[in-house]
Design brief:
Two copies of one chain form a homodimer.
Chain A (H helix, E strand, L loop, with lengths): L2 E7 L7 E7 L2 E5 L1 E4 L11 H6 L5 E3 L1 H6 L3 H6 L3 H5 L5 E3 L3 H6 L2 E5 L4 E4 L6 E4 L1 H11 L3 E3 L11 H21 L6 E6 L5 H13 L5 E3 L8 H11 L9 E3 L5 H9 L4 E4 L1 H7 L2 E4 L2 E4 L19 H5 L2 H9 L4 H24 L5 H7 L21
Parallel strand pairs in A: 4-14, 5-6, 6-10, 10-11, 11-12, 12-13, 13-14
Antiparallel strand pairs in A: 1-2, 2-3, 7-8, 8-9, 15-16
Helix pairs in contact in A: 6-7, 7-8, 10-14, 11-14, 13-14
Chain lengths: ~375, ~375
């Protein structure tokens, strides 16, 4: 029920590849961008609209869903696919990232993590077995091992300890996993330390997971450093397994990561920016609150085939944000999802020829001069 | 370009009627319910979704739009239809109701009203000529005369003065109106005083408007009193002109008003209640925040053909409100619009036979025992 095939490798020794990832709920063309439905919905959008944007898989967050409404309730209501009204493939993360970034940590041991819920202040324990049990209840097509994601500024000894735990926990996750139709991916940690990344990858590869993720990047390090880590690490991951870069990213991150062999990405950027009146276009982002858009009757992006650009002017969209109408965030979120899917589709078109110059020409935003200029970093926005 | 035809009068001397109202942007089957797009969008919904719910005409508020983004800007961006992405008929109100209910009034004279904007505190003057000029800029199919709507508790002398002004202003509106393709409706005021209503109607009828609205009801008076006023007033309005009851209402108000001969209604109820987790069904309203819906896997209303009931469970909808996901208000607003349109369609089905017993049997909510029990009055909610 789970299968990954590389269909078109980049010619001339490049690392990029096109593939097909088959899951019980459908096949995903890779490289693929996975929209994020943190609490069981892609914010403001109908599943059908997400599908029409070109998305073939979505992500939901275990940490949030297990706090509300609870994984067992979701199972009783028919599982995550039925609950959300999305009949395509779903990926759930393990909760590890949110535990270490959102929760007020109480105690981390080799056994697991105790934390105070950011929701109701209750103490909650999460460990490899319970993280997998929760994901078995949710029923996604791809589930993730429970890892320890150290903060971006962590030193070598802290990252070493996180890698050791991540490896040990990966083994426990395998043992706890009860539903063979769900593919369990391992997560490689190791921060920006190459030897730690290599050591982590080597041990996880020995356990033979059906897919490998790279965690702990895009946590504040510069783009160049992220690319450096990926360039060394990704080619050492099994070529016949899907490779997933978690929580990334901006168009130029996606382009760079695809070029070193990444197949899957998830990120809140299109919807979060959309809610904040920031629209993606091939040449850069538009901040719609800017006065200059007030009288503009044209679409967000000329030539964009999305339903927003077919119908609404920049002037109207700016007005919606000006008067705080819900439809503003809705429309720009959808446009942004279309943009990200269009970007990935074009990457898939060009991988078989390895024509990166065309990609950069069509999407200046990915060439390092676009999105970098808008000064919006993840921390300045809310989701 | 503007025409109204009564196609099916209620048999046996009843006052209800089915009709066809033709405007430059399309024909509306009456009795019709007009969803409200206060600031240029039906909150949270795409125009296409509103259309698919069965709506054939929508309303936008002159008062809000002339403050932001401004009527001239909307005209520059192609007029209200293009601006909102709605190519069907549109009705704009005159701003009178909002000036008298929302704004901090500064001075009312026989010439017009000066008020401080609720938005930026600026002084704004509105009078019959400017209210029509603004509506001419917006370009709706049906526009409304600038009236004085007295508060629900106003005494006879205050209402008398409002009626005198409303009549005088109606004449000025006719004179100011510049776009013949827009039908200008007059508004009958007079509070709960029958002679004042009759006097107001008589003078407005003498001016020969293409349609007549009833204003100043549903402003706090009991249902029975509203019906009493309508029962005396509506049959005196020209039978060959559309009759529009402004700002109404709940299902049983709609049923009662249709029975005395009203053809058009507008109300924020479906969307406002939808945003507040309150769903309409034939048997009453559901408050989705209630714990009892947590584990319910069925739809909001069994048998409802709307896209929400086709796909999502009560448990999921409750969850969305619990975690404050935008999709909750979106989905319940759309279900409610479908409910109101389904209600009107069934009324249109049954008018030719005058079978009110069937209507009440199919919609207990309109029989006086449903919506009346939910204790949600307009004042307790925000739009």
């Amino acid at each position: 029920m789970f299968n990954f095939t590389v269909t078109d490798p980049e010619p001339g020794g490049g690392q990029a590849r096109c593939g097909m990832l088959t899951t019980p709920h459908g096949t995903i063309r890779t490289p693929a961008f996975v929209p994020v439905g943190t609490k069981g919905s892609i914010k403001g959008l109908w599943p059908e609209q997400v599908r029409d944007s070109g998305a073939e898989i979505i992500l939901a967050n275990t940490y949030h869903l297990c706090q509300r409404p609870g994984a067992e309730l979701i199972e009783q209501l028919g599982g995550l696919h039925t609950f959300m009204g999305w009949d395509g493939p779903i990926l759930t993360d393990s909760g590890g990232y949110q535990v270490f970034s959102l929760a007020e940590l109480n105690k981390i041991t080799d056994e697991g993590v105790t934390f105070r819920s950011h929701m109701d202040g209750q103490y909650v324990h999460l460990d490899p077995a319970s993280a997998i049990e929760i994901q078995n209840h949710l029923g996604a097509d791809i589930i993730m091992a429970f890892d320890q994601c150290p903060p971006g500024h962590a030193d070598r000894s802290e990252v070493t300890r996180a890698v050791e735990r991540t490896v040990r926990w990966a083994q426990k996750c395998r043992e706890a996993h009860r539903r063979s139709e769900q593919a369990l991916f391992a997560i490689v940690q190791g921060g920006v330390f190459h030897e730690l990344r290599q050591a982590c990858a080597r041990q996880l590869i020995a356990m033979d997971f059906p897919g490998y993720a790279v965690g702990g990047l895009s946590v504040g390090e510069p783009h160049e450093q992220m690319v450096e880590v990926l360039t060394e690490l990704v080619p050492t991951l099994p070529a016949d397994r899907p490779r997933y870069l978690m929580g990334v990213g901006k168009p130029r991150d996606l382009l760079a990561a695809v070029r070193v062999g990444i197949d899957l990405f998830d990120c809140v950027l299109p919807t979060r920016h959309g809610r904040n009146a920031c629209a993606f276009t091939a040449t850069g982002t538009l901040k719609l609150r800017n006065e200059k858009y007030r009288r503009q009757s044209g679409p967000l992006e000329p030539g964009c085939p999305c339903p927003v650009c077919q119908k609404f002017s920049r002037g109207y969209l700016r007005h919606l944000f000006g008067v705080r109408e819900m439809l503003g965030p809705i429309l720009v979120s959808l446009h942004n999802l279309w943009f990200f899917q269009r970007f990935m589709a074009r990457l898939r078109d060009l991988i078989p020829s390895g024509d990166w110059a065309t990609m950069r020409a069509e999407f200046p935003i990915a060439g390092g001069t676009g999105i970098g200029n808008d000064n919006m970093d993840r921390g300045g926005l809310c989701e």
